[in-house]
Write a structure and sequence with these properties.
By secondary structure, this protein is mainly α. It has helices at 4-17, 33-46, 54-67, 73-94, 100-121, 148-162, 171-179, 183-197, 203-223, 226-230, 237-248, 261-268, 282-312, 319-338, 348-363.
Amino acid sequence: MKNITAYIVGSIIASLALIPPIYFSVDAPSAYWPWWIIIAGFLGFYTLFIKTDFIVKVVAIGGFLNCFFSADPYVSFTSYISLVAGCYFYILCRSIKDYKPVFKILQCLLVFTAFMFIVQFFGQDRLLNFGRVRNFSGDYCFGIIGQHMQSGSFSVILSAALLPFSMINLGFPFIVSTICNSAGSFICAIIGLFTFLIEGRDKKHVFKSIGFLVLIFIAWMILSGKISENMSNSGGRLGVWLSSLEMSFKHPIAGWGMSTYKGIFPALGGIKTIPWKTAHNCWIQIIFEFGYTGFLIASIYFSGLFIRLIKLTRRRAKRDMAYKCLAGLMMIAVNMMFHFPTRMIQTILIIIFFLAYCEGVTDGRVKIKSS
């Protein structure tokens, strides 16, 4: 069967992206726990002998070494299994020769999610909400993800990954963020639109259009009370970010350890409103868990990919695709500043796939037809 790898990748992404909100618990370590971790560590070191991107080797091996410095080694070593699995998923994505089947599966995922939003909007969702009217409290399920903010973030990541396939997908997060009252997702969509429109168009009209959307965003933030809510030092995101950075200074090199934020910050962060299990900012959470060393590695990778895509915009044959990838990359990077897409099982593999695709565009493995 042709493109079997692409169908496998698409199926894995869809199977995880379709997971509805569920609760589960993990039992105490079994006698086999060290064996699983040792196997995962071996697979991490095995990337040294695989022809793949250097960043994969750094993440796979560096992640394992980081666990030995963790404030909670059991949590970090257990999470490492997922990390090394993500590395091999990236390797699988990079081996795809024709990405179209994956894009078609992602497009179907977007259409299916849009359908769920439509039936929910009209109060006809008898699958996840049993016909209840939309609200922002309790256990009401938005889309297929559940919580309204996470659904907004999901729409941004899915749309960003689909931009190389069709730019019409950029309208999806604008609509979803409005339904879900997610201003962070709305600004991500604005930035993606601006990045794409800046290519070869009348700059005056572009800035006017984007400026109008920014004014809508500012008015939204003020009238909804999101500015005062998030700027609060006692329980808003700003206070959580500042407290997270303050705590990171205690472990600046290696951090507190992978996946330790949700166990350590609620107890030591000094925020008494709600237990913040994530920092609602992936970049700050990377600093908290992996130290400034991990943040530097992540920053260098994203910046390097961004610069390589910028260089591609100077080549006429690849200019359009380069701008589409840049728009998606900017949307993901900004979404990571407000939400936690790297900590959502529904979005992390989509991000990995998109990064692998962008790498293929920059190194020439993805064949682009000249327009």
